[in-house]
Write a structure and sequence with these properties.
The chain has 254 residues and is mainly alpha-helical. It has helices at 9-16, 21-39, 90-93, 100-116, 128-137, 148-168, 183-197, 199-205, 223-248, and strands spanning 7-8, 43-44, 53-55, 62-64, 71-72, 82-83, 220-221. Helices cover 50% and strands 6% of the residues. The longest helix has 26 residues, at 223-248.
Length: 254
């Protein structure tokens, strides 16, 4: 395997957020193709986040790493819970089995970071079609999330259409000509072209990302943390029930 001089994807987010959209999409497609190999081998990654993706010096190669929690899709046993909380799907936090859809949720967080290098804001001028796909990927219901093959098809079509647009309009400004029969695809392409026009201003306004001093971006055991959260929720619910019952016992006399 080649040496990944750029380090983790997380270290490159500041640069990537300033890329043209066709370059962002190409990076996302490369990530998808790597994850596709895992899923089509009937495996789940189990710890998918930007710290486990390495980049080559020219950004042309990406490597998905840290497969220590990778396991067969058929393995539904849940023991300890490990991960980086912002990338963990809701069903994992509920102690449900890890599935390919859980990896897709994690991928949506990377899509989010590509827009502005940070969460939770979706910055202005992000193409609506991109936002819609991202939201499908982080749907709270795993069965509503697209498969890795669906993601590959959608993003590949976006790249093809944008490349064709710039090929046909290299010497023309503001004249949307594209060889595409699908009107929806044409609309999506126009959104990316318009978003590219705003990149100069966004680059000037982009601030350096600062992480919270207590934020964790490395994999760690979360079982005890989640158990404590559930315990706190139960205590709060019991307190609310007691308070409500005490109110019922109050009698207002004339």
């Amino acid at each position: 395997m080649s040496y990944a001089k750029k380090g983790s994807l997380r270290k490159c987010l500041s640069d990537i957020s300033k890329f043209k959209w066709q370059d962002k999409l190409q990076l996302l497609k490369t990530i998808i193709l790597g994850l596709k190999i895992i899923h089509e081998s009937n495996l789940t990654h189990g710890d998918f986040h930007d710290g486990n993706i390495l980049m080559s010096d020219n950004h042309n190669e990406l490597f998905i790493t840290d497969l220590g929690l990778c396991k067969p899709i058929s393995d539904s046993e849940v023991n300890e819970i490990y991960g980086v909380l912002p990338y963990m799907a809701p069903e994992i936090l509920r102690n449900k089995p890890y599935t390919p859809a859980s990896d897709i949720y994690s991928f949506s967080m990377i899509m989010w970071e590509f827009t502005s290098e940070k969460r939770p804001e979706i910055i202005k001028n992000t193409p609506k079609c991109y936002v819609d796909l991202m939201k499908k990927c982080w749907d709270s219901n795993p069965s509503n999330r697209p498969t890795i093959r669906m993601l590959e098809n959608v993003i590949s079509e976006w790249i093809r259409c944008i490349d064709k647009y710039y090929e046909m309009n290299s010497d023309v400004k503001d004249n949307y000509m594209v060889d595409a029969n699908n009107q929806l695809l044409k609309d999506d392409m126009c959104e990316f072209v318009e978003a590219n026009k705003t990149l100069v201003q966004e680059k000037a306004n982009t601030s350096i990302m600062q992480s919270h001093s207590q934020a964790y971006y490395i994999t760690r055991k979360c079982t005890e943390i989640l158990a404590q959260v559930k315990s706190d929720i139960i205590v709060l619910e019991k307190t609310e029930i007691i308070q409500r019952s005490e109110c019922f016992e109050c009698i207002v006399k004339d």
